[in-house]
Amino acid sequence: MKKIGILTSGGDCGGLNAVIKGAALMALNKGLELYVIPNGYAGLYNLLNQDRLVRFDEARLDQFEASFAGSEAGHSRVKIKAISNPDKYNRIKVGMKKFDLDALIISGGDDSGSVMIDLNQNGIQCIHCPKTMDLDLQTYSVGGDSTINRIAQFVEDLKTTGRTHNRVLVTEVFGRYAGHTAFRSGVAAEADCILIPEIPVDWDVVYEHIVERFTRRIRQSDVHSGTYTIVVAEGMKNADGTDIVDESAGVDAFGHKKLAGAGKYVCQEIKKRFKADPRMPQFMKDTGMFVEGIYEIPEVREVHPGHLVRAGHSSAYDINFGFEAGAAAVLLLLDGKTGVTVSKVKGRKIEYIEASKAIEQRYVDLDQVAMYESIGTCFGRTPVAYEPILREVDGVYERIY
């Protein structure tokens, strides 16, 4: 093996440039050449039409920082299997042969990982570095920690405007199937309520939690100031388990329906209950806020940081993991391993698992949710009793998420 191609795919996030740089530096160390395939799987499919590829040598590596979020290689959302061209796999092989590429390193999430598996099964040597800010793969995935830290900072910062205006603030974040980032960032920001896809929402439970905590804070404040914060994952479900989707928008390349706005929906549910609650006008009068016809219920506002949580700089943890995953991918390829996902690097041990197992959905541990319910956080359900199991462990705890 002499030449390797690298591409990144799916959503952008923190740590990806560290994956690229880690792979490139290890390739240099082993006397290999690493080339970037731009624009994800679209670029791979069109490799045959490219005039040149950029080699990540020392000079090129000096031109970008591993700490920057996003990807120097660029992304696209393309499912190779769905391309109508019956010669698609051979087209990719011919494109790789044009540049003498022996194998590919692919960093992506579950959708991108499924494409990597498909390519590998069709005779294209690939290895997978796990990447998804949603943290819903079986392994840790680059991008998760960076996103959690950014969301937590946004939610914490929003409390200043929330207290200034006595608002209920709802922050919608990513998380279609699993609520890891909403859960962990909400906890870190001391959000009052965290709504995740794993728990269908009982709006009566949420509302009573708001009324008790929000009104108490403002009544007890010497300047009648307070706020209530909610972090909601985009894939939040109603009490009947249904998704909140835009049926008119069709589906993307991987068959996903467009989500229709969980944050907006949460605001609507809260406002509806505020208006119907006879306690609210009296609360507003007691705290000096009531103005007939203008200001009769508390304000509820939605904040949607969107791609800001993917952007900016990567966390130190993601940079470390990215370097290790990228470097490990090169070493695994040199050892003849393909179709696998880098799991962990611990000293001289490089751990990996079959990619088909790595991309299986991992959900939030509801027993862990119960612990946070026991200390007052609302998760949109009647709190479940937390019954701990105490045990002494032998060894070092390794997984932070």
Helix count, DSSP H or I runs of 4 or more residues: 13
User: Mind telling me the C-alpha Rg?
Assistant: 24 Å
The unreliable regions are none
The structural class is alpha/beta
Mean pLDDT: 93
**What is the string of SSEs from the N terminus onward?**
EHEHEHHEHEHEHEHEHHEHEEHH
The protein's oligomeric status is single chain
Biggest beta sheet attributes: 5 strands, mixed
Portion of residues within helices: 25-40%
Beta-strand residue fraction = 5-15%
Strand order within the widest beta sheet:
3-2-1-4-5
Distance between the termini: 35 Å
Please tally the β strands and state the result: 11
| Shape summary | elongated
Can you describe what's shown?
This protein is of the alpha/beta class and 401 residues long. The strands form 3 sheets. The chain has a 5-stranded mixed sheet, with helices on both faces. A 4-stranded parallel sheet has the order 7-8-6-9, sandwiched between helices. It has 13 helices and 11 strands.
Topology:
Elements: E1 3-8, H1 16-29, E2 33-36, H2 40-45, E3 54-55, H3 58-61, H4 88-98, E4 103-108, H5 110-121, E5 126-130, H6 144-165, E6 167-173, H7 180-188, E7 193-195, H8 203-220, E8 228-233, H9 262-276, H10 279-286, E9 299-303, H11 316-334, E10 340-346, E11 349-354, H12 355-358, H13 366-374
